[in-house]
Every structure is written in structure tokens, then in C-alpha cells.
């Protein structure tokens, strides 16, 4: 398990997501002295108007990354951050995992109804089913224990 957690890519969508995943992951990665690479994907609309400006999204990403670094403050874990842009979040995350030589993609799933996931696309489902990089999904119960 230690090699699986040696250099993990952690997708983060918002501050709460970053805090919960970091809380679940910190002690496991700290045990092996690993590296966490937090990645925020700015989803491009693919020809349609974007919901917010790139500058606004980059500012939001900086706030999200602060939740990751704050959550790792009391550990020996090295933290890196990266913003990526793409129309397919899952594919962008897998591509990034290859680019940074990640040992695994690690996260806690975000909430949301089945309808929401059906209408907006379920990144978790797509990531787990299409990744050739190991994917480790921490259960929500682990977050409350951390």
C-alpha cells in the first residue's frame, strides 16, 4: 500500500471537497512520507460561454489549494498544486496523473443526487471506469474518523 500512496494526485473541486479528502488522506500519506499533488480542473465549456472568467476560477483554485495545504500542515507530506483546463474532467485528471507520474488518484466522493450526477456527468464514475492509473476512493465514514 505504501507505494500506492507515495505520489498521489488529489482532484479537488471546491474547498469542502479539498478539506474532506485531505483529512481522510493525510495520515495515510504521512505514514509513507508521500507527496500530494492537488489538482483543480477548470472545466472549459467547449465552445459555449464559460460560467466565470478564467481569473475568477484561478482565484477560487487558490482558495481550494489553501484547504489542502492547511490540512497537511502537521504532516511531513510534500504538497504540490496544479491547475488544469479541460472539457472532460475525468480525462483531464487521468492525463495529469500521467504527466506528474502519480502512483494513484485519491479522493473522497462528493455528494449529489443521482439526478444531478446523471444530468451533469458523474466524474467519479467516469474516473473509476476509465482510468489506467489506480484510483483509491476513501469512504465518507473515514472522513468523519480523521
Chart the SSEs and their pairings.
Elements: E1 7-11, H1 15-32, E2 35-43, H2 54-71, E3 78-86, H3 89-99, E4 104-107, H4 114-120, H5 123-130, E5 135-137, H6 140-145
Helix pairs in contact: 1-2, 3-5
Describe this structure as you would to a colleague.
A five-stranded parallel beta sheet has the order 3-2-1-4-5, sandwiched between helices. Residues 115-120 and 141-146 have low confidence and may be disordered. The chain has helices at residues 15-32, 54-71, 89-99, 114-120, 123-130, 140-145, and strands spanning 7-11, 35-43, 78-86, 104-107, 135-137. It contains six helices and five strands; from the N terminus they run βαβαβαβααβα. It is globular and about 45 Å long. The chain is 47% helix and 21% strand. The protein is α/β, with parallel strands linked by helices and 146 residues long.
Oligomer category: single chain
Query: What structural class results from the helix and strand content?
Result: alpha/beta
The count of DSSP E runs of length 2 or more, i.e. the number of strands, is: 5
Average residue pLDDT: 82
Q: What share of residues are in beta strands?
A: 15-25%
Which term fits the overall shape?
globular
Strand order of the largest sheet: 3-2-1-4-5
What labels would you give this structure?
5-stranded parallel beta sheet
Précis, in short:
Helices cover 47% and strands 21% of the residues.
